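Bug: token stream looks shifted between consecutive jobs. Job 1:
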Amino acid sequence: MSSELRERCDVAVVGAGPAGLEAASMCARAGLDTVLLDEQANCGGQIFRSIAASPLPPDSVLGDDYWRGRALVREALHSGAHYVPNTSVWGLLREGEVAVSHSGRAALIAAKRVILATGAIERPFPIPGWTLPGVIGAGGAQILLKSSGLVPRGPTVLAGCGPLLWLIAWQYLNAGVRLVAILDTAARTNFLRALRHAAGFAASPYLAKGLRLMRAVRRELLVIGNVVALEANGNGKLQGVTYRTASGSRQRIDVETLLLHQGVVPNVNLAVSAGVVHGWNEAQLCFVPLVDGYGATNVPGLAIAGDGAGIAGAEAAEARGRLCAIAAIRALKPQLEMADEEKAARALLRRFTRGRAFLDALFRPSA
């Protein structure tokens, strides 16, 4: 690893999360001059945030799905890819030209191929009182846990919907946080809509894992469902959260920390600025870039991997990163045979997108 920027490279990968790590590793091992750019000080992206520098004991609190990211980081850092952390990519200018800020200066990197692996961002969840100190996004709270081992000290409530809400509840219970309740805002009718996708979900790896997680949380924590209204209360800081259910029941819980979450959406800022065509994804209620089976966009030489091309989770992101890398390798080193690698990547992608439609319907935010 070196902090020096290069003016030229074969492949520039933006983002060192699951997709970016896999794309950079595969390109570098194929002999391509590969640069891996990331704004954080350590590899991992949001899913594996600070995995090489977490203050938490290994194999504790965060679960196996987090700690398996160590192997991805290790492989990428030993692949020969030129990893440059603490680097903000702020523009994709002319074709193959990446504009960055690093060590207090701006620079341009000329790349034959660019792979965006910018991941996802938390969907804003505005409610009355959401700007009070003590109200925080669940994703932001999880970043504090992963990177610094920081958790709330006082009574805490989680509110909203989505798989991350249940995961962070489980992680917080492991960390000894004083969790009071989950206020679930997913409509009960979501389950009926999700049922038509149940066969695919039953055959996916998510079923058993999700059931174990939710059962573990429900054993320890009060879950209040069908919440249709939320309000954070307090004078100068959060002191309570008031909620109303679909039956009309209105209650208040005294609380010092409120974590809000309503799902994640692709981080499309760079893609939009580069002129990538986007379309509305009604299932995930967000705009997504229009890409082909290798992540290629309408912009020549620019591909998008991972959750930046549509929310599907870490394993699917890794598969998409590999497919973007395969396309880059074929374009720049056509003599290399990649059929087996592509077959394996597509099998992985199929396996981990099989249950996605069920999850999208089940955790669809209410109107």
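Job 2, same session, no restart:
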Amino acid sequence: MSLFNTLKKATSLLIEMPAEQPPTEFRSTDVPELDDIDMDLPPEARLPASKSIEQIVEDSDGPNLNEIKVAPEAVPLATEGKPLDFANIYRAANLPETAFGAEQMLETLASLPSELPLETKRLTVRAMLSTLGKSSGATPETIVADATRKLAALASFENFMNKRTSEVIEKAQAEITDLEAQIEARKASMQTAKNHFAQIQSECERESDKIDDVLEFFSLDVGASNLAPVQEPKQ
């Protein structure tokens, strides 16, 4: 799936957001264990509402998706064989800095046991964010907004590179067409030169045959010259 289609799909998704909960006392270094998480939260406390991702982005601090454009001059050109520096791409798109964004969320999800059900993972992350959010300001909304803006930045960068690549290809193709025309012109010039030489060679050979008759006329080492009269055979 292209980045444009990925972004288009993402903006149409609905995210179920937890209701505001009374503050719970956590130490800043605490990360809740699975056993500490109340899996029996009432439904209204767990999934009270939903928002589209596009709405979440619009309601959060930072640019809307249609405002995210990567400034090409701010991104070092990609070197073939070397990985892209995505942090530079996000900076070039002027995305807001976040202490806990999409990358940190990916690390957190990777640390969870793979056998955990999806809903358990979600509850675990929400409990963790209720702790981290006090110091970092991280919430599901801020993480979703950060991830979506980064998708938009990547789509913008890919679109720029696609146009740049097309321009390079078009320029190279025009040069190839010009070179092919020059090659055909050179081939025609070569054939004209060959034809001219063949004409010269033919005329020179005819003229040399005539001149050679003079030499044969005076020479004793060859047969009768073309200039000698034709002898009638004796009867």
